[in-house]
Amino acid sequence: MKKYFCEAIGTAVLVLFGCGAAVVSGGIEGVLGVLGIAMAFGLSIVAMAYVIGNVSGCHINPAVSLAMLINKKLTLKEFCLYVVAQVVGALVGTCLLVLILHSCGLDYIETGLGSNGYGAESFLNISALGAVLVEIVLTYVFIYTILGVTSDESKSSVAGIVIGLTLAFVHILGIPLTGTSVNPARSLAPALFLGGNALKQVWVFIVAPLVGSALAALTYKGLNEEK
Questions:
Q1: Structurally, how many domains does the chain consist of?
Q2: What is the DSSP string of 12-80?
Q3: Which residue range forms the structural domain that includes residue 21?
Q4: For the chain, how big is the Rg over CA atoms in Å?
Q5: pTM
Q6: What is the domain-level CATH number for residue 38?
Q7: Cα–Cα distance between 110 and 28 in angstroms, integer?
């Protein structure tokens, strides 16, 4: 159970600090801006990778776990339990963020909780189709990088930094478009708290990252199967 507990902790940290940075800084036009919010998500991964990576692998993202399942590094049972732990962790992280906002006298519904969206919910008013495309591409790049850097033991000492910086890098492009998901658990939790359009649109940020992950895993497997 240790690895599932670690996955829950890691996902809670990612959601609290990533989404929290977006909310308390005033969003994309706030104090931190796109780069600051992107770095909050990336640094969350770096921190957790070196704390729980040796226990659970620090997936903290169902899309990452799916890639590991496809590449036979997880069993189906392990994959299901990883996803449950990640969703629970994301809900805990969101709940902590709501409590912090409440202590500041802020209405968490009005803050948006760092949720993802398209159309009127997007800073650049991206279409639903555009959001699907963006999330598939961003997740593909993120997952492909993870598979590449974790497959070589000689890179293990820097894997957490590379993965964290890659997450920040995809956020820089994605934040103005969709808010950047690439992680179904990170998207689902805020949407469940907010309801409304956030919940109606969350299917994009569950389906598209999983599609992007599967494509990345299959590509990597096909290009590296002889290694």
A1: 1
A2: HHHIIIIIHHHHHTTGGGSSSHHHHHHHHHHHHHHHHHHHHHHHH----SHHHHHHHHHTTSS-HHHHH
A3: 2-224
A4: 16
A5: 0.94
A6: 1.20.1080.10
A7: 15
CA distance linking residue 74 with residue 142, whole number of Å: 19
Distance of CA 173 to the CA centre of its chain: 14
Q: Do the beta carbons of residue 177 and residue 204 sit within 8 Å?
A: no
Q: pLDDT tens digits for 155-210?
A: 778 989 999 999 999 999 999 999 999 999 999 999 999 999 999 999 999 999 99
Predicted local confidence at residue 91, as pLDDT? 98
- CA-CA distance, 50 to 178, in Å (whole number)? 29
Q: What distance in Å separates the CA atoms of residue 204 and residue 188, rounded to the nearest whole number?
A: 10
Q: Report DSSP state, residue 182.
A: S
Alpha-carbon distances, residue 142 vs 12, 21, 46, 64, 120 (angstroms): 20, 21, 14, 9, 26
Residue 29 exposure: Cα atoms within 13 Å on the Cβ side: 2
